[in-house]
Amino acid sequence: xxxxxxxxxxxxxxxxxxxxxxxxxxxxxxxxxxxxxxxxxxxxxxxxxxxxxxxxxxxxxxxxxxxxxxxxxxxxxxxxxxxxxxxxxxxxxxxxxxxxxxxxxxxxxxxxxxxxxxxxxxxxxxxxxxxxxx
Length: 134
Prior knowledge:
Layout: H1 2-20, H2 29-34, H3 38-48, E1 53-57, E2 63-67, E3 70-73, E4 76-78, E5 83-85, H4 88-95, H5 112-121, H6 126-133
Antiparallel strand pairs: 1-2, 1-5, 2-3, 3-4
């Protein structure tokens, strides 16, 4: 299952590189999701992994997803000890434009995660999505 999630992460990165690179400033998706787009990436993963939860790095500059005992971001697996659970106060911080992990980009006038999820839905990856949810 872990390998399937890593494959899905690569799929997301490749899809964004192919379809939305212009919209995210001509940077690689992995880099966008590491430098201002981590919230959007976490939203995408949590959409497909509803049992997951968002985690925040101890320095408050990066979000990732905790799922089945592992922490993931656009580069794959991360060290658990570098992250902690989000607390109520963290949510207001994340929504603030000053949050390092929040680069205010719009694709077609909408949140990148919403547009990317729509694009993923057009792809024939149902079997992969079923495998990662098991």
